[in-house]
Amino acid sequence: MSHTLHRRGTPENLKHDFPMHAMPARGINHEGAKPKLQEFLRIAHDHNPVNLGDVKLGNQFVTDYEELYEKLTISSTHAVLADESDLVELLKEVKAADLGMSLTISGLFDKLFECCAKADLQPHAVEHSLGVLGKIEKMPESEISQVTTMCGHGMVAQGLVRRLIRKVKQGELTATEAGIELAKPCRCGIFNPVRAAALIEEYCALFTISIR
Amino acid sequence: MRIDKSKCAGCGQCIEFCTLGKIASRRRDPKNSRLYYEIDEDECVDCGVCLRAEICSSGALFMPDYEWPRTVRAAFSDPTVEHRETKVPGRGTEEIKTNEVTGRIKRGFVGISCEMGRPSVGARFYDIEKVAVALAQLGVEFESNNPCTRLMADPKTGVFKDEVRQEKVLSAIIEMLVPIEKMADVLVAIRRIAMEVDCVFCVDLISVLEKDNTIPTLSILKSLQWLVLPNGKMNTGLGRPLAKEA
Predict the structure, then answer these.
(1) Is a pLDDT exceeding 70 seen at residue A41?
(2) Alpha-carbon gap, residue A169 to A209, rounded angstroms
(3) In this predicted model, what pLDDT tens digit does every residue of A107-144 receive, in sequence order?
């Protein structure tokens, strides 16, 4: 699925968000893929990821890096970077390692083209989100969707975002802690907890809470 | 998903973990006046998020041992569950992610998907069918290795199996390959049928880049006055062996 494609947001709040998938093509180069994906995970781990994961094992907030590395499956390995210079360095290193695994990255297109050029990579294809159609009035408000759409499988509940805004406003959690709580249900590890924390902080000024 | 009312403490913590929002209601047991919550199982998509959150301190939440066709709900809504009926894991295929190796989408073609129910609304298969039938009438080729296609009674018509039509899922992807010259017709049909469904859906477009990084579909989107978002996804071309160009 187009897991990381439909992240909603503004150019400003999307510019520090680079989720990625490394994976083999089933039936073509999946045999012997595990050590290659482990090497990708190691490289990603060295470039300040804000999240890592594997859908079968969970994200870095429920499964630590060592366990992820040891038990990594050959389905799809995920990482999220928040800084474009880290992304350029990761791309250079992955290219030099010549792993042969496909690597897909999401983000602002102008940044993605720029980073690929700096790493001397010729990208193959792009995927555009053509938006949401249908009964859009059934969707949560746009602020909530900016957080929930960071999990493409839709595992981050809209009610959880509201719950954590409330907890941050009440001083029970920091925005950083709320970002991590929001990242936990997204098993694959493609949720960006740092971006979520920044959004929650912003929303604390916008949302009101009622005390029962 | 179900709540055992004899165990439920009526705290309502679990409802905040519902990926679709409010599908549980608070009730009072007339026999003992105890408050409890009840999940509307017809609306629930069995994503399992509330259960995995381990938020219920009284152990009242549980997933019943559902049978076909109900089992399609978890298969399409919970990424930890594999499709027992279709034998295809996940909600879609590898699509753009490995395209430089598989060569599935070649130059001159585009990949278009309708991710029915996404985001945060869910979709019934009768609505998914409306979109699939409208697209099938244009002669599109549905991706055969996609779990949604496998639930069609006839992929040539887009008609789904009778027994799954009422089932609701968090999202299911209609995935197709389209010659670039047909892309505008397909998108116009998608825009038209969107007015007839009682759910939302995301639309995806995959384009193979030209050697100079030109995106060959942008001019078509412009002619349709279709909003192009600044963010998206890129296959960096690092997979090997590369597919042979047709």
Answers:
(1) yes
(2) 8
(3) 999 999 999 999 999 999 999 999 999 999 999 999 99
Which residues are within 8 A (CB) of B46 and not within 5 positions of it... i.e. 6 or more apart? B1, B63, B66, B70, B73, B74, B77, B78
- Residues in A touching B16 (Cβ below 8 Å): 157, 159-160, 162-163
Is A153 an interface residue toward B (CB < 8 Å)? Answer: yes
B69: how many CB neighbours lie within 10 A of its CB?
A: 17
B192 touches chain A (CB under 8 A): no
Residues in CB range of B152: below 8 A, 6 or more apart:
B132, B142, B158, B159, B160, B161
Listed in sequence order, the residues at least 6 apart from B20 whose beta carbon sits closer than 8 Å to its beta carbon are B43, B44, B45, B120, B121, B122, B170
Contact A77, A50 (CB under 8 A): no
Residues 6+ apart with CB under 8 A from B129: B158, B159, B160, B165
Among the partner-chain residues A109, A134, A154, the one whose CB lies closest to the CB of B171 is: A154
- What are the residue ranges in chain B where pLDDT is below 50? none
- Global confidence as pTM: 0.95
Picking from A190, A20, A108, A40, the residue whose alpha carbon sits closest to that of residue B96 is: A20
Which burial class, exposed, middle or buried, applies to B218 when counting CB atoms under 10 A from its CB (0-12, 13-18, 19+)? middle
B69-115 confidence digits (pLDDT tens): 999 999 999 988 876 655 555 666 788 999 999 999 999 999 999 99
A141 touches chain B (CB under 8 A): no
CA distance linking residue A125 with residue B78, whole number of Å: 28
What is the interface pTM, i.e. ipTM, of the complex?
0.96
CA of A70, closest CA in chain B: separation in Å?
19
Residues 6+ apart with CB under 8 A from A197: A175, A176, A178, A179
- CB distance B73 to B175 below 8 Å: no
- Signed CA dihedral, A69, A71, A76, A80: sign only: negative
| Cβ distance of B204 and A98 shorter than 8 Å | no
Q: Which of the four pLDDT bands, split at 50, 70 and 90, describes residue A1?
A: low
Calculate mean pLDDT across residues A27-49: 97
What are the C-alpha distances in Å from A132 to residues A76, A139, B44, B163, B199? 26, 10, 22, 28, 10
- In the block, residue with structure tokens 């482990």: A38
Q: Which of B119, B206, B240 sits opposite A127 (nearest CB)?
A: B206
Distance of CA B147 to the CA centre of its chain: 10
The burial class, CB within 10 Å (0-12 / 13-18 / 19+), for A45 is middle
Entry field: residues in chain B: 246
